[in-house]
Structure formats: structure tokens, C-alpha cells
Design goal:
With 336 residues, this protein is mainly beta. The chain has helices spanning 18-21, 308-323, 325-335, and strands at 2-3, 8-11, 37-39, 59-63, 74-78, 90-94, 119-122, 136-139, 145-149, 154-158, 164-169, 197-200, 203-205, 213-222, 230-235, 243-247, 250-254, 261-268, 276-285, 288-300.
Length: 336
């Protein structure tokens, strides 16, 4: 990743969980959220001075793709803002040093290497090429490099020797241009089997006490072509009431020959008496967003009924208070 304000590029482990990323262990690297590699400005980690700085407000650090010269190296648009001497941009290719185990290497007491770039594009004269912000670069399979001056909108291709092959002015700011080679579209697969998701059943509960947990089920089936494979998942995001769980929540490789899959559902009712709730659960084909089915859901919670004896007692007390003023005064005296 490009850390613009640090004038550095960093490499981190994206395989970590959130917990591992907050620690110093875990992930494919075993280093958790620690930096695996950094380059461009060793002064930020007390391993150099301003004279050792290589990057100046850079953008678009990226790996060079397999099949291209320099594959596995890093390609960087070095904007050159506040570069000593004069402002000009360069394209820098960097080969991070690794040890015999393929891990990024740092000699204790020194800065991360390399000391010099593997390749650079520098215009002639250097100050004729400058972008203070945005911009990017892309290595082509031919070994040439496609460069985007994002600020001016100029796009051009250069050889490894720095000669310009062609150029084009887009007329507006562009962050980066990549090359998509012309290829004939692949023919559609022949005799492809297509799954078709279908659901049966519904979930309906009545007179359920608030906070109670109830259960139900519905069925999922692939009614598509023979031997087709259905990968499905449950989406209950449209329901904003109750607490839900499903078993199973998803499935893969369901064929028409497998028949039904029964999904067991549990739901804890909201703490709201005398209420009606409704909604739907959406069961989706993971590989085809247009293929889905709906399971309707309804729930009602009971009305809080006042017992007849309580109503009789209330009427009796009201009658006594209205027809015996002395008794009412006595009650008020004790209350006060």
C-alpha cells in the first residue's frame, strides 16, 4: 500500500483476522498486523536521514503482474513533490530483498533495501514530466510501461530505454489507465447445466408471548437441469424484528436428485405485546443473483387481558368511595 504522507510504501499481511491484525502473530506470515516491508523514507523509522529518502508524495504502488518483465517487483508513480533540487516525477521499479525462505529481509541497524531502484523512467529534461498528485503506471507484457500523468490527463507508453512509443491527451484528470489486451470472447459452454432455486413452506406464529423462542422450518430444492449444482445462502436482512437463526444457513452442490433440504429456523419474539409482525426471508443462488425465492414470515403477540376479578374489585372500590364520603376521607388521611 502507498502511504502518501509518510513518503513510503508498506507491505502487510492480508490473511490475518481482525484479532490477529491487532497483534504481532498470526496470518500466513506469522507476524500479525506488523509491517512486513517498507521502503522510500527510512527517516520515518529512525534508519536514515532526508538524504536517504527515495519517494516524494508517491501514488499507485502495485505489483508487476506475472508474465511481464519484472514480475513480482513493485512499480510506483513517484510524484516528486518537494523533491530536492526541483519538482519532477519518475516511475520507479523496486525489487524488495528477500532471504532464502522468501521472507522480506532487514539487516539489523540498517534501512530496508534496496539502496537503488531496479529501473526508473526519467523524462528528458526531468522537469518536463511532473504531476503533483494522483497518477499511475502499469507494466505491459512487452516490457514497456504505460504511464498516466493524472493531473494533466496525458497517457503515454515508454520502452525500457525511456523512448516514447505513443501518447494521448485525455483532456481531463485521470488517476490511472491500465491495458486490456484484445481477445476473442470465449465461446459459451456447450450443454451447460443450470440450477434453479425453489422454496416451499412459510413461517407463521400466532399468540406468541413476547421474548419467547419458537421454531419452524421450510424447504429448499434445486429444480433446474439434471446434474446442475446449486450453491445457496439465506438472506434475512430485510427483517428488523426478532432474533433469528437458521440451520443450515447455506449450502453448496445441491442437485435436483438430492431432493429437499430442510432449513430449521428458530426465532426469539420481540418484547412487544399486542403486535403483528411480518416480513420475508430471501433464499439466493450464490452464483446467480437473479435466481432466488421468498419465504414469507408472520408473527403475532397476544393482547394483555385484564382478569374479570380485577375489574370487579376496581368497580367495587369505586362504588364505596363514591357513596361513603367519610370512608373516602379516612383513606385519604392514611395515604397522606
Amino acid at each position: 500500500i502507498s502511504i502518501h504522507n509518510f513518503n513510503e510504501i508498506w507491505i502487510i499481511d492480508h490473511s490475518t483476522t481482525t484479532e490477529e491484525a491487532a497483534s504481532h502473530s498470526g496470518g500466513n506470515s506469522g507476524n500479525g498486523g506488523d509491517l512486513l516491508y517498507r521502503w522510500g523514507n527510512p527517516m520515518t523509522y529512525d534508519a536514515g536521514t532526508t538524504n536517504d529518502r527515495k519517494l516524494f508524495s508517491q501514488h499507485d504502488s502495485s505489483w508487476i503482474d506475472e508474465g511481464c518483465p519484472g514480475a513480482g517487483d513493485l512499480l510506483i508513480f513517484n510524484n516528486g513533490a518537494n523533491r530536492p533540487g526541483s519538482h519532477y516525477s519518475t516511475i520507479d521499479e523496486v525489487t524488495p530483498p528477500v532471504d532464502e525462505n522468501g521472507e522480506y529481509y532487514l539487516q539489523p541497524g540498517t534501512a530496508y533495501g534496496p539502496e537503488t531502484q531496479t529501473w526508473m523512467y526519467v523524462a528528458n529534461p526531468p522537469t518536463s514530466f511532473y504531476a503533483s498528485h494522483i497518477s499511475g503506471a502499469w507494466r505491459l507484457s512487452s516490457g514497456n510501461t504505460l504511464i498516466t500523468n493524472g493531473e494533466s490527463g496525458k497517457i503515454f507508453e515508454v520502452t525500457p530505454e525511456g523512448s516514447t512509443v505513443w501518447q494521448y491527451n485525455s483532456g481531463g484528470q485521470v488517476f490511472k489507465v491500465v491495458y486490456i489486451p484484445p481477445e476473442a470472447p470465449e465461446p459459451p459452454p456447450q450443454n451447460e447445466t443450470t440450477p434453479d432455486l425453489d422454496c416451499s413452506g412459510s413461517l407463521s406464529w400466532t399468540n406468541i408471548k413476547p421474548g419467547a423462542t419458537v421454531a419452524g422450518n421450510f424447504q429448499i430444492q434445486n429444480i433446474g437441469d439434471n446434474e446442475s449444482l446449486l450453491n445457496w445462502t439465506i438472506n434475512a436482512s430485510s427483517i428488523s424484528w426478532g432474533t433469528w437463526s437458521f440451520s443450515p444457513e447455506s449450502g453448496t452442490g445441491l442437485t435436483p436428485e438430492d431432493g429437499f433440504v430442510t432449513v430449521l429456523t428458530t426465532m426469539t419474539a420481540p418484547d412487544e405485546p399486542d403486535s403483528d409482525f411480518e416480513g420475508f426471508i430471501r433464499v439466493e443462488n450464490i452464483n446467480d443473483p437473479t435466481d432466488y425465492d421468498i419465504v414469507s414470515v408472520t408473527l403475532s403477540t397476544p393482547v394483555q387481558i385484564i382478569p374479570p376479578w380485577f375489574m370487579f374489585l376496581q368497580q367495587f372500590i369505586t362504588h364505596i368511595l363514591q357513596n361513603h364520603p367519610l370512608f373516602e376521607a379516612l383513606v385519604n388521611h392514611f395515604i397522606s
